[in-house]
Amino acid sequence: MIEQNKSSAGHVRLIDLPAVTDPRGDLTFIEGERHVPFPIRRVYYLYNVPVDAERGGHAHRDLEQVVFALSGSFRMKIDDGKTKSEYWLRDPRKGLYINRLIWREMDSFSQGAVCMVLASHPYDENDYFRDYDDFTLAVNEGVK
Ligand code: T46
Predict the structure, then answer these.
(1) Which 8-state DSSP code applies to residue 9?
(2) Are the C-beta atoms of residues 142 and 82 closer than 8 Å to each other?
(3) How distant is the alpha carbon of residue 93 from its chain centre?
(4) Is 6 part of a structural domain of the chain?
């Protein structure tokens, strides 16, 4: 179950995935451009995350992503430059879609949490805003 504690920041939304359940367990599947709104060009995952770790702290110029808690839970703090919101991810059937130009921070990882991310592009360090002032400037100017 995912809890949303404040109104959603722009361009961020929860995506519900199908689940096939039978006595052997649950199966969830994800198809690019069907369950997520882009062709999936990259998959990565975070694991062995210390419970007091903070990750993220950046935004992207072009990248779109969907973030899942495959196991355990963590918090995602979302900021579109104007509105802040936060989500607790703890259900592997629900993903958090994050469009471009959204600042994200992650913390409160549970012991053994696994975070999987589906991304619209390969890794490119030039796509990152790692400075918050640069990010808000880009939001205000409406530029990439
Ligand atoms: C995001 C959150 C959820 C790569 O070489 N390839 C990759 O695909 C990624 C994602 C990272 N890296 C390298 C770049 C850094 O040297 O791995 C190192 C750690 O990356 P970063 O500090 O960006 O990791 P997080 O967990 O803070 O952020 C990542 C994504 O970068 C980010 O887009 O939304 O996970």
Answers:
(1) P
(2) no
(3) 14
(4) no
**Two tokens at 33?**
């451009």
Note the pLDDT of residue 144: 56
Residue type, 90: R
Look at residue 96 and tell me if it is in a domain: yes
Our answer on whether the CB atom of 73 is closer than 6 Å to any ligand 1 atom is: no
Residue range(s) defining the domain that contains residue 46: 12-141
CA-closest residue to ligand 1 atom 6 = 123
* pLDDT for the residue numbered 83: 94
Please determine, for residue 8, whether its predicted confidence score (pLDDT) is greater than 80. Answer: no
* Closest atom of ligand 1 relative to the 119 alpha carbon: 33
Q: Do the domain assignments include residue 42?
A: yes
Give the ligand 1 atom nearest the CA of 42: 8
- d(CA 100, CA 72) in angstroms, rounded, equals 26
User: Which are the catalytic amino acids?
Assistant: 58
Q: pLDDT, tens digit, for every residue of 36-88?
A: 999 999 999 999 999 999 999 999 999 999 999 999 999 999 999 999 999 99
